Amino acid sequence: MGRLEGKVAIITGAAGGIGRATAVLFAREGCKLALADVTPEELNETGNLVAQAGGQAMVRRTDVSMEDEVKALIEAALAAYGQVDILCNNAGVVGQLVGPEDQDAEDWRRVYEVNVLGAVYAVKHLAAHLIQRRSGAIVNTASVAGIRSGAGGNSYSASKAALINFTQTTACDLGQYNVRVNAVCPGLIETGMTKPVFDYARAKDKLWKVGHRCELRRYGRPEEVAAAILFLASDEAGYITGQALPVDGGNTASLNLPGMKF
Ligand SMILES: NC(=O)c1ccc[n+]([C@@H]2O[C@H](COP(=O)([O-])OP(=O)(O)OC[C@H]3O[C@@H](n4cnc5c(N)ncnc54)[C@H](O)[C@@H]3O)[C@@H](O)[C@H]2O)c1
Q1: Does the active-site annotation cover 156?
Q2: Residues with pLDDT less than 70, the chain
Q3: Does 220 contact ligand 1 (Cβ within 6 A)?
């Protein structure tokens, strides 16, 4: 028996990186999938990988910042499978990396629309179904950037802090219906989102430096975040709700003060 046997999951941002790794892992664990992203070709490729893993997935181009598209995604998943047990709000964008005086309201709006409102819309339109079934698990992909500074621009960090808080408030709203809501907070993971960091480091022959300040002295892999998402989505985490779990090689556990390490 797979750990998600008989369950159905919606995963947004499933065209690559953490979302794709989560889709493939969920499929291996017996979960049926509804996969969403704004990049159809890469999304189809995830669908192919799921099929190769012996799974079943419907893919649907969805911009999570558009409420009507999110609503349609949820309706399509319910029409295809008759139920949804798990929602992974994973789609995300990075904002500008600029100083305080150069911040752009349009950047803040866009980052919030995808990283925060995308999750809000999905919860809004799936909540009635989960409440009616008295069962469900929601896992939001936040970030260590939402816990401490230094891991992203201001708009991105604030959006992830908002997502962590939305995780907590939603967990309180839905706990009485046996619907659990948690977040993962990845540290530095090699994906499309962080490609410029890795490309730059490789070009300068400094890949060893990337992630070096983590306690585990390395960057992470999408599969390592997917494993945490699987745990939180599964019945094994049946008494865990409202939590934001760092998956960051110990990064947020340490102040990492310069000069204090040898
Ligand atoms: N890679 C890291 O180091 C890291 C660290 C912390 C948190 N995260 C978070 O992990 C999540 C997944 O990112 P990733 O690292 O796998 O990068 P990624 O770029 O591979 O994945 C993000 C996905 O979100 C999709 N997306 C963007 N805007 C969208 C929209 N409006 N509607 C639907 N889909 C949209 C992208 O097309 C992409 O496929 C994001 O929420 C990101 O903020 C990543």
Answers
A1: yes
A2: 261-262
A3: no
